[in-house]
């Protein structure tokens, strides 16, 4: 099931880089998912990795928000508790947070934000 989410995210990033080439270095993924050894996980946590961080972050203020944080989900995917907690924290700090389940949803959110 994670593969569906990955394919949607790849399509979204490809569209963004084509549509907004001047901003392509400002949209990046946060590789929090995937299987890792316990040692690697401990090192990443010590380096500052946080559970629940959005999959994509667009570091571009739009006059209302400081950045756009995008959580990618497969069509029926739901947020984990750690993701809802992170959402509350970043929204309280002046950022926009959205959940996208398709390329079309991503396009609508990004175009609306920008």
Structure overview:
This protein has helices at residues 2-19, 38-47, 81-92, 103-113, and strands at residues 27-29, 56-58, 68-72, 96-100. The protein is an alpha+beta fold and 114 residues long. Strand 3, helix 3 (81-92) and strand 4 form a beta-alpha-beta unit. The longest helix is centred in the N-terminal third of the chain and has 18 residues, at 2-19. It has a 4-stranded mixed β-sheet with strand order 1-2-3-4, with helices on both faces. It is globular, with a radius of gyration of 14 Å.
Blueprint of the fold:
Blueprint: H1 2-19, E1 27-29, H2 38-47, E2 56-58, E3 68-72, H3 81-92, E4 96-100, H4 103-113
Parallel strand pairs: 3-4
Antiparallel strand pairs: 1-2, 2-3
Helix pairs in contact: 1-4
In a few lines, what is going on in this structure?
This protein has 114 residues and is of the alpha+beta class.
Query: How far apart lie the N and C ends?
Result: 30 Å
Which segments are poorly predicted (pLDDT under 50) over 5 or more consecutive residues?
none
Shape: globular
Count of discrete alpha- or pi-helical segments spanning 4 or more residues: 4
């Amino acid at each position: 099931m994670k593969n569906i989410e990955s394919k949607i995210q790849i399509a979204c990033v490809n569209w963004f880089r084509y549509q907004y080439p001047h901003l392509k270095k400002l949209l990046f993924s946060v590789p929090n998912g995937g299987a890792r050894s316990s040692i690697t996980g401990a090192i990443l946590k010590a380096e500052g990795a946080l559970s629940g961080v959005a999959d994509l972050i667009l570091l571009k203020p739009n006059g209302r928000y400081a950045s756009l944080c995008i959580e990618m989900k497969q069509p029926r995917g739901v947020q984990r508790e750690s993701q809802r907690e992170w959402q509350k924290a970043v929204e309280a700090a002046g950022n926009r947070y959205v959940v996208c389940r398709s390329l079309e949803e991503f396009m609508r959110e990004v175009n609306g934000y920008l």
